[in-house]
Structures are given as C-alpha cells and as structure tokens.
Amino acid sequence: MNSTGYGDWIRDFETARRERAGQGDPDWRTGVPLHPAIRRSVQRFQVGEDGDGAELITKAEASGDAEYASAVRMFVAEERNHARLLALLLASGDAPTIASHWSDRIFVTLRRALGLRLELLVLMIAEMVALRYYRALRDGGEDALTREVAGRVLADEEWHVPFHCHRLRRALRPLPAPARVLVTSGWRAALAVACLVVAVDHGPALRRLGVGRGRFAVEVVRSSGPIAAAMR
C-alpha cells in the first residue's frame, strides 16, 4: 500500500464493494437453526458489528486527512454489512438478534472515551479476536450457509487489520522507540486479557466449533506479535 496516502485503500474498498454487489447475497433459504451455543455466540458478535461508527468517522474527519476519512467510512460500511449478514444468518434459522451485550458496551465505552490513536488500538483488539473467531466459524460451522457467511466476513477482516495497522504505524512514528515498544506491549497485554474474556464467554461455542478456549486464546495472542512489530 502507498505509505503516504490512502488512495490504494480506497480503491481496494471500492473493488470489494463492487465484487459484493456482483456476487449477491448467500441463499438464505438454505439456513438451518444454529446449535444454541453457536447461536448465542453469533448473536453477541452481531451486536459488536452493528455499531454505526459515527464516533470513528468523526475522529477520522477531524484528523484533516480527507482520504483517510473516506477510507474509514468505507470500513464502517463493511462492518455494517457484516452485521447485516449475521442478522440474516440468524433469521434464516429463526433466531433473533439481541439488543446489546455487556462485552460490546465495554468496548464501545472505551473507544468513545479516547482519541483516534487509542480508539484504533482498542478497535484492533476487537479485530484480532474477530479474525480467529470467524476462521473458527468458517472451518467448524455445522452447515454450508454458516460457513459461507463466516468466510465472507473473514475475507474482509483479514485486510481490515492491515488497514488499521497502517494508520497506527503512522500515528506512533513520532514517538521515541522505547515509547512505541511500551504502547505496543501494552496493547498486546490488553489483547490477552480481552481474548481470555471472550474465550470464557464464548467457550461452549468454541468447543462446538472444534477450537476450545485455550487454543483460541493462545492463537490470538501469538498472532499479535507480528502486528505489534508492524505498528512499531
């Protein structure tokens, strides 16, 4: 990606949008009721994807970088589409969405209380957890529709992480090297705590998906090393 601007990211977001439009939605008629543990887990992740992103967009616009603000709006649109897909997956198996969940309320409160740089660090915690979760749902889902929806969401999340990492690398660059190490080490520690909470909260679903709490937590934390290095 261009190291000084966001034109390439904008083009990639636009390409992905056109591809989604051409592909169309999955065949929701093939949906089946999800196992109760997986249903509850998907409901909680759907709430997390369903924010309007207004605070992040406002902070991106306040940064004075019009290209970055445009790219952030496209990112938020993809997250809303994830919420839509997950809601329709639940509906296809006659399951409702839920209005809120305590874990999402905590993340939202933290993100809104912080500036852009710290909000992105919190957001990256959620994105790293989501990467491993949707991979587990894609690989261990018990029906074809669940696996397809999870695969579509995962494909987007796999490059949301480098998108945010690109911005954070630029945001942390003015700091002295020891400060950058301190920030990214703190981020990894916070990610480990969040991951353990998610592993416990979603444990029954993770077991059903063939991952298990311990493996899930270890793999998320391990995957954060290269990301932290890239931020620095």
General description of the model:
This protein has 232 residues and is mostly helical. Helices cover 78% and strands 0% of the residues. It is built from ten helices and no strands. The protein has helices spanning 7-23, 36-49, 54-62, 66-92, 102-112, 116-140, 144-172, 177-201, 203-208, 213-231. The radius of gyration is 17 Å and the shape is globular. The model has no long low-confidence stretch (mean pLDDT 91).
| Secondary-structure class | mainly alpha
- Radius of gyration from the CA trace? 17 Å
Extract low-pLDDT stretches. Answer: none
**Biggest β-sheet strands, sense, barrel:** none
Write down the overall geometry. Answer: globular
SS summary, helix count: 10
Q: Let me know the average pLDDT.
A: 91
How big a fraction of the residues is strand? under 5%
Percent range for helical residues? over 70%
Instruction: Sketch the topology as an H/E string, one letter per element.
Output: HHHHHHHHHH
Taking the alpha carbons of the first and last residues, their distance comes to: 17 Å
Let me know the number of strands: 0
